[in-house]
Write a structure and sequence with these properties.
2 copies of one chain form a homodimer. By secondary structure, chain A is an alpha/beta fold. Among the domains of chain A are: about 90 residues, Rossmann fold (3-Layer(aba) Sandwich); about 130 residues, NAD(P)-binding Rossmann-like Domain (Rossmann fold), CATH 3.40.50. Chain A has a 5-stranded parallel β-sheet with strand order 5-4-6-7-10. Chain A has a 3-stranded parallel β-sheet with strand order 2-1-3, with helices on both faces. In chain A, strand 4, helix 7 and strand 5 form a beta-alpha-beta unit. Chain A is globular. Chains A and B meet through helix 5, helix 7 and strand 5 of A and helix 5, helix 7 and strand 5 of B.
Chain lengths: ~300, ~300
């Protein structure tokens, strides 16, 4: 397998979790606090349940506490709001996430705004997203963009002057990641489904981020020779045998011979995203003890990469 | 002058102010409310004083109230904070701005965060900036990006699929404007001082935004034939005669024969920025009467362009 230029997300995610387990133990020793993640799920979408279970297990693996609050599909906005308000004021809870997508009758923006900024470990509260634009690195940042940035830094010492192309402009991934990469000194182009000639942009990219949710959109002629390719897309497709298969946005086999490095799907960005959710929860727990917390180990991890 | 392909910012700004004056009169008639802008200035930087006076005069011109709070250069963070807190809870004040730049001993991010989100008529509070990423168009948006977007829409019916290049990635202009243009369906490239070959990107841009604060950075070979050029830069330079001259980021005379349309400096983005500050204050005043305010005239102006 040595000849495949993989960025192994599982390996890096596990490395982080080993480190986090140690940090969690230290926090417990010094302050008698166990980081506690509250997860809210509405309805029982199968994919959401898989993701939620992965998060619960990841918490267990680093000796963190998690509590899952499951609501029926028809739960009202007021019900979810009330739970968030209660969790906001519960000193034993350090992080709160609401598993997306939410049912159509619930206003996801309003729900996100209800979460206390310092417990928003998904980093999706407008305040935390806006802090990215301000270049304020002391807040909670969104997990998938952090995962992508970390994986890129595994392969590159500095990002200053690198040419990045981001396919897909979602509020969850493309936009915040792009802002973070701009702050790192990158030239960043955002393309979307209306871009007349996407390959014109992708072919020049030293770093290509595929976050469109469009299976195998990226073919060999879209990729610059020697590029670093980060595949955020993950689409579940039932194949001819009736088996569910996960597709990335990148046709891995078609592009692998051209790239310097590439993340696989699965096993790339996904596991790292979960590790950053844990990291954010540990940061939130640390900050519950010392609001200014300049030098805890987790914070140093961020500073290394994001200052 | 007809052959010069100007986007006349003064003309459009005055058109908006005529309209706003009418809206202000309607609000006064219906609710006995006069939109009131509070301006905080710290120190007496000459350029800041010019800008502040322009804002005060613009308020007068549309029959809005403004109050200027001037603090000495050495005022403490606590002093400014206390004034903002008082203005936040003053029901007679609808909009609050703190003139930038602030003295180095004051943390501008913390100051911006202190302003109530619904009175943040500069649109620079992290919550309001983050709402741009979420695509939430119901909040207060930053004035200079709104000004640029409006001027672009004067020349183009739809922005979907347009290729935009933004020179400069500040939190005040480049970043939020780029996010807004992405939401309009544009392909957007952000370049900065570390971009190896800036002309490679600028030469392809249907819409070129210069917001670097670098006088006459943009020369003819950077501009695509037929482009729309928006010049946000404004730098005051003392020339050989000892006279202060304002320079844009674009060498107007050098590029004017290539462009479809271009904003001049002065008289382009600047006056429109002030008009959007007034607009935001009127919106804030309307919302103080009716929080949900779906259909007031100012809001419709926004919906036309930003939905």
């Amino acid at each position: 397998m040595n000849h495949i230029p993989l960025i192994d997300g599982r390996h890096h995610a596990n490395r982080m979790r080993t480190y986090l387990k140690d940090v969690v133990a230290q926090l417990h020793l010094s302050s008698n606090i166990k980081p506690h993640l509250a997860i809210i799920q509405v309805g029982n979408d199968a994919a959401s349940t898989v993701y939620v279970q992965a998060k619960v297990k990841a918490c267990e693996a680093v000796d963190m506490t998690s509590t899952l609050y499951s609501f029926p599909q028809e739960a009202t906005q007021d019900t979810i709001d009330a739970k968030i308000v209660a969790l906001n004021s519960d000193a034993m809870v350090h992080g709160i996430i609401v598993q997306l997508p939410l049912p159509a009758h619930i206003n996801a923006f309003d729900i996100t705004c209800k979460i206390a900024v310092h417990k928003d470990v998904d980093g999706l509260h407008p305040f935390n997203q806006g802090a990215l634009i301000a270049g304020h690195v002391d807040g909670l940042m969104p997990c998938t963009p952090l995962a992508c940035l970390d994986l890129i830094y595994q392969e590159m010492e500095s990002l200053v002057g690198q040419n990045v192309c981001i396919i897909g402009c979602s509020k969850l991934v493309g936009l915040p990641l792009g802002v973070m990469l701009i702050k790192q000194g990158c030239t960043v182009t955002f393309i979307n489904r209306s871009t007349p000639n996407p390959a014109h942009f992708t072919q020049c990219a030293d770093i290509l981020i595929a976050a469109a949710g469009s299976p195998h959109l990226v073919q060999a002629d879209w990729v610059k020779q020697g590029a670093v390719v980060i595949d955020v897309g993950i689409t579940r497709i039932i194949n001819a045998d009736g088996k569910a298969v996960l597709y990335g946005d990148v046709d891995f086999d078609a592009v692998v011979s051209k790239v310097h490095k590439i993340t696989p799907v699965p096993g790339g960005v996904g596991p790292m995203t979960v590790s950053y959710l844990l990291t954010n929860t540990v940061i939130a727990a640390y900050k519950s003890v010392d609001k200014d917390m300049p030098n805890n180990p987790v914070h140093q991890l961020f500073e290394k990469q994001l200052s």
